[in-house]
Amino acid sequence: MKSLDLGCGSTPRNPFQASELYGIDIVDFSTDTFEVKTADLNIEPIPYPDNYFDYVTAYDFLEHVPRIIYIDGKLRNPFIELMNEIWRVLKPGGIFKAHTPYYPHPEVFQDPTHVNFITTSTVEYFTTAAFSLGRAYGFKGQFHILNHYQDTQHKFHLVWEICALK
After folding, report:
1. What is the DSSP track for 48-68?
2. Burial 40-55 (b: 16+ CB within 10 A, else e)
3. Tell me: the pLDDT tens digits for 34-48?
4. Quick check: 136 and 124 in contact, CB under 8 A?
């Protein structure tokens, strides 16, 4: 089993106990024992092939991905594009787990690098619950909600566990 941790820093997380662990960050945190690929996922694709991972995780990462940007005068939707990429690299039935602060908690706004404000309903744009909403903004994949809950240790964090439908 293979798991990819997005925005992993120097300590990638492996909540599913996958036998192979991979990490991506905007900074090279590679060590002698662990390679972290560098990529700016706001503007670059996930540097792995289609259907490669059983799991993808993102701890305290999604809130740093802008919803819209302009590059060379063209509008881009990095958050939608990233969700497309996550769906692309997951195997059929693969699981994406996200752990992120959510509105209306003040922690959503206190970090000046938080630019994507998640609500309890945001996940639905990428799932069967509101499939057409995500499609209207360019989402090409489809997920099914497995779990969607408030983290009991971090009351201002929301956890998504969604399964790639392919």
Report:
1. S-TT-EEEEEEES-GGGS-S-
2. ebbeeebebeeebbbb
3. 789 999 999 999 999
4. no
